[in-house]
Amino acid sequence: MTITAGSVRVTHTLRPLRVAMAGRDVPDPCKDQVRPCGRSAPLCGADRPHNHEVARPRQAIPAFVREPDSYTRYERLMGRRRRSSVVQGVIVAVLLGAVAFVIAGIVPGSSGRLRHAAVGWIAVEVVIELGACVAYALLFHGVFSRGQYRVGFTRAAQIGVGELGAFVVVPTGAGGPALRIWALMRGGMPFATVMVRSVVHAVIFNLPYIGAAILLGLGVALGLGPGHAPLAVALAPLGVVAVAVAFAFGATGVARRQRDEPADRWHRIGRDVLVAIPVGMRELPASLRRPGLVLAALGYWAGDCGVLVVAFHAAHGSAPLGVIVLAYMLGQLGNTLPLPGGVGGVEPLMLGVLTASGVDSALAAAAIVLYRFVSLGIQAVAGAIAVVTLTNAGVDSGSPRASSETNDHTGGTP
């Protein structure tokens, strides 16, 4: 220490001790320094060797929540959601029971078909729905594990199947994207990367829906479709696709007009979401060159819709395949209602399409109830197990790895 007139100048540099100076999610200057090699290692003592082979980087803090207090609030929010999943699952079961009771009371003959439902066919439904969940896990892994950020298949399956369960128990399906963002960012994947890959995932996932909408619409318009589905009903899925495409183009235009850097954190998040749409569309052709992704998406849609087809056999009846697929597709619109699993919105839509297409109302009602019990039940139970194993094991996936891909979008929200 040097003392001069009117001032004190410290010439000794203090060195931190090897103590825990920060929490699990807060950078510690004693432990988190990064050497030029890119590996994290303690730099508190020159006598301690730096092993480049065994040193592992500490878990990256998501760019979306760089402020420690924001990250803590976000984790607490996810913890409350996980704790309430059991209650929400019970609510879904109660709603399904209420819907079954109402349908059985309103539609004559449906209660008898439900009482005498074929157990063997119900078991086939369960197997098919489990296969659909596996297909979704394969799609999730294929889309989100590539480039600089990769996810192991087990962890991807936990997140993907947990996402299906969150779609069921949270109204409007908002729990699915929330779980995906939390799990991937907790593993170190930047928010912008999660959003870009979510755009790619959404497009590939819905390709079978788009293809079926075009085929069914053209088939009914040309008089080639099975059953007696009204033309307006058959063209409705194409209308849904047109609205989605218009929204994507509109969001792309808004993103291109964003020139200034938003000052507010939530505005930056919104900016990144909008920017992810055109970036994801540019990355889409490379993903489509991997046929396994489209096959996985087709496997989920065919499996989940196949449960409805088998449900007709469980209810001791049958219906034209095209009509069942049309009812299934339009029934998905009920998931946008603020109800857990779309219960109370999906069933009337499906029943209306089936009866308008000439299917017996009692048979249609019984098949819908059997389909919903199996589909929602399997997804909710499998999703709950996936989330529990995911949170118990800790989320460490999505960490950066060396890759030959140089065009991967890895930016984060500032």
Broad shape: globular
Give the mean pLDDT. Answer: 75
Order of strands side by side in the largest beta sheet? 1-2
Q: What is the CA-atom radius of gyration, in angstroms?
A: 26 Å
Distance between the ends = 40 Å
**Spans where pLDDT lies below 50 across 5 or more residues:** 18-24, 26-68, 402-407, 410-414
The share of residues in helices is 55-70%
The largest β sheet comes out as: 2 strands, antiparallel
Number of helices: 12
Structural class: mainly alpha
Task: Note the beta-strand portion.
Answer: under 5%
Elements, N to C (H/E):
EEHHHHHHHHHHHH
Annotation, overall tally of beta strands: 2
Describe this structure in words.
- Helices cover 63% and strands 1% of the residues.
- With 414 residues, it is mainly α.
- A hairpin with a 2-residue loop joins strand 1 (2-4) and strand 2 (7-9).
- Helix 6 packs antiparallel against helix 10.
- The relative contact order is 0.16.
- The model is unreliable at 18-24, 26-68, 402-407 and 410-414 (pLDDT under 50).
How do the strands and helices of this protein lay out in sequence?
Elements: E1 2-4, E2 7-9, H1 68-106, H2 110-115, H3 119-144, H4 153-169, H5 175-186, H6 191-221, H7 231-257, H8 265-288, H9 291-314, H10 321-331, H11 346-356, H12 361-393
Antiparallel strand pairs: 1-2
Helix pairs in contact: 1-5, 1-12, 3-4, 3-6, 3-9, 3-12, 4-5, 4-12, 6-7, 6-8, 6-9, 6-10, 7-8, 9-12, 10-11, 11-12
